[in-house]
Design a protein that fits this description.
The structure is a single chain. It is built from 3 helices and 52 strands. By secondary structure, the protein is mainly beta. The radius of gyration is 34 Å and the shape is globular.
């Protein structure tokens, strides 16, 4: 049972609040709130028990489906016997894990429900056509001994169960005999909720209604759909290419001589044929468009229609070539596609390259080739991946000869780029080289659960092999892990769940770090005193685009120019600006300073302190405000802010300190530099001024 319980307030608890007999303020409001919560609970219980009854019907032997209507996340399903069920697909925890086991008995969390006599409770009838996670069951004593549980929640917030409307409910107990709380909360109201996440998904596949339960493991039921009047298409979208045509086959099931078919299209040209619609796309593709295929059976005025949308046809894969040891083995090729495709192996290589099979899905798939051992000389072949739309993709398979070494580790300093691929990505993505450290490459974006490969390339985009885990496949979130080199596809990390990840590869240290949402590096939040120490406190979380830079003399007489700094993908506490900033020391030495705020609008929070006599930052002018703002100021080697200006040295890290300071880095008189990049490393408190060239 789920343990994240939230307390369900009972009517007794509400009414026992101590109030004066003549002071009823707030009592009526609390009673109304209670009544609202109780009404919501009753509605949810009704929905939950309706789903229980639907589950029981779905498991009956020989059950069929006449009609399915989807409205949001509610499916209205009409069964062959005329029974209509409304079931709800919801996200969230399963509050009561109810299902029917392979022998037709009701279970909670996989344990059979027992009646008052301690006997397991049988569902009505036989098991239906189950999917791969279940099997056909035995009949329930011809349905005579079957019972349908009715769940409820008592006044103390515990689950109850009974088997008829007249029966006294008993509390549901867990495997240890303890009563089970009805837990959960509405995402929109925060009120107690039983939850109705009994069903995980509903879909139609090859003439069957496929219903998946939120059970452990997930149970799948497949109910055949009766051949009523309907239009059958293979998918609900059409993959097209600009300026090209594609055929969309369809079938009208249950048609007669009076049936007529029509098509309607927006943004595309559609021509109706015999069992096919030919769609021609404009060039370029429009942002929106649709196709409607409609059938009317005049004999009984029945009407059916299907609505299809368009996507740009695409097939991409990661590798242009794969190298295989002489011993042979398996080659795995990740593919991203929204079109059908075939894999062609040339006849001359059919004796040593074999298609092991593929795991195919709408968005991603993997092609597996089995390579036989090689006792002769090196050999090669080109395998083609032929999509139904678009250009053929080729991959070169090269196998080493007997005793020939085919993989040599490379000097990582010579690697020009790193690329991410695998089932955790819809398409390959680059690990970008960071400006603060040329040996550090980073990625910060969404990954799906699945495999993640890291491939190396030279300056001509030729694959140099792969970075793979030194041991295991765990990402070891929040920690640096060592890696080694091997063939592309010979090792991958397993991304455990979909989410936002930061991947940081340090080729000099030969480590890779994965940060998930729980362990990710956080931006810097600063709090600084504004005038007279404790008069006012200002707080700001540093994010991109928040810095003011001065390259002038003086301080109070100017307002700093806003420079848009970006955060490094490797670390949210490293900021950089790239552009062109000429600093000329002629006539009067020029200096550079970095401040985070120029007015009260630039800070997140202003709080009054305990001190007195300080100027109010809410009323300060821009010049006065910025002179007292937090800055990245020159510091000594120990990180202590200097009381004097410091020399501006280019292309080197210079120590800084976070402080309210007007001290600057000063360019020597007569010097000229053209700064192309400012970098502020707040994690290590240092700054750098990168230049194209330094004038003599």
């Amino acid at each position: 049972m789920k343990k994240n319980f939230v307390r369900f307030a009972s009517a007794i608890a509400i009414l026992s609040l101590g109030v004066a007999c003549t002071d009823l303020s707030g009592v009526e409001e609390r009673i109304e709130t209670l009544e609202t919560q109780m009404a919501a609970m009753a509605n949810q219980l009704n929905a939950f028990n309706a789903n229980i009854r639907a589950l029981e019907d779905f498991t009956q032997s020989g059950q069929t489906v006449k009609d399915i209507v989807k409205n949001g996340n509610v499916y209205t399903i009409t069964l062959g016997n005329g029974t209509v069920h409304n079931i709800t697909i919801e996200n969230g925890p399963v509050q009561l894990n109810v299902s029917i086991d392979s022998e037709g008995y009701w279970t909670i969390d996989g344990s059979r429900i027992k009646d008052a006599s301690g006997n397991p409770v049988k569902a009505l009838g036989e098991k239906g056509d189950k999917g791969e996670n279940g099997s056909n069951g035995q009949d329930g004593a011809n349905g005579k001994d079957g019972k349908t549980p009715i769940f409820g929640v008592d006044s103390e917030g515990y689950w109850t169960i009974k088997y008829s409307e007249t029966e006294t409910p008993a509390r549901v107990t867990d495997e240890n005999g303890n009563p089970v709380k009805a837990v959960g909360s509405s995402s929109s109201t925060g009120e107690p909720s039983t939850g109705s996440c009994l069903f995980k998904s509903v879909s139609v596949e090859n003439g069957y209604l496929v219903i998946v339960l939120n059970s452990t493991p997930d149970q799948t039921y497949r109910l055949p759909i009766e051949a009523g009047f309907r239009i059958s298409v293979s998918k609900d979208f059409i993959a097209v290419l600009p300026g090209q045509s594609v055929d969309v086959p369809f079938e009208v099931i249950g048609k007669d001589a009076t049936t007529h078919v029509f098509v309607e299209a927006q943004g595309y040209t559609a021509t109706l044929g015999d069992g096919v619609v030919t769609v021609t796309a404009p060039d370029p593709l429009p942002e929106t468009g649709y196709l409607i295929i409609k059938a009317i059976r005049n004999s009984d005025s029945s009407t059916k229609a299907v609505y299809l949308t368009f996507e740009s046809g695409e097939l991409t894969f990661v590798y242009d070539a794969k190298t295989v040891l002489s011993e042979g083995g398996k080659v795995t090729i990740p593919v991203s596609a929204n079109v059908d495709y075939t894999v062609n192996i040339p006849e001359t290589a059919a004796s040593w390259i074999h298609l092991a099979g593929s795991t195919k899905a709408l968005v991603s798939s993997t092609i597996e080739l089995i390579i036989d051992g090689n006792t002769g000389e090196q050999r090669a072949a080109t395998v083609s991946i032929v999509p139904s739309l678009g250009e053929t993709k080729n991959i070169q398979i090269v196998q080493a000869g007997a005793g020939e070494a085919v993989f040599n580790q490379v000097d990582l300093a010579t690697v020009a780029s790193f690329s991410l691929s695998g089932t955790s990505l819809d398409a390959p993505a680059a690990l970008a080289q960071t400006v603060e450290n040329k040996d550090v490459f980073a990625f910060y974006s969404t990954l799906k659960a699945g495999k993640l490969y890291v491939e190396m390339f030279d300056a001509e985009s030729k694959s140099l092999g792969s970075i793979i885990p030194a041991s295991g496949t765990d990402i070891n979130a929040g920690n640096a892990s060592e890696f080694k080199q091997d063939f592309v596809g010979n090792g991958a990390w397993e991304i455990p769940a979909e989410g936002t990840y930061r991947v940081v590869l340090n080729r000099a240290a030969k480590t890779i770090s994965f940060y998930d949402e729980a362990t990710d590096l956080q931006p810097l939040t600063v709090k600084f005193a504004y005038e007279n120490g404790t008069s006012w406190y200002l707080t700001k979380t540093l994010v991109p685009g928040t810095f003011y830079v001065s390259t002038n003399s003086g301080w109070d007489s100017w307002k700093g120019r806003k420079y848009t700094f970006l955060a490094s993908a490797a670390d949210p506490q490293v900021f950089y600006w790239e552009g062109e900033c000429a600093i000329d020391g002629d006539g009067d030495p020029k200096q550079v300073s970095f401040k985070i705020a120029q007015s009260k609008a630039d800070v997140d929070l202003i709080e009054a302190g305990t001190g007195t006599g300080g100027a109010d930052p809410n009323t300060q002018s821009g010049m006065n405000f910025i002179s007292k703002s937090y800055a990245f100021a020159p510091a000594d080697a120990d990180g202590t802010a200097l009381s004097t200006d410091a020399e501006l040295i280019v292309n080197e890290w210079l120590p800084c300190a976070g402080a309210v300071s007007n001290k600057r880095w000063v360019l020597a008189k007569g010097s000229k530099v053209n700064v192309i990049r400012f970098i502020i490393d707040a994690r290590n408190m240092r700054v750098r001024f990168d230049v194209e060239e330094t004038a003599e």
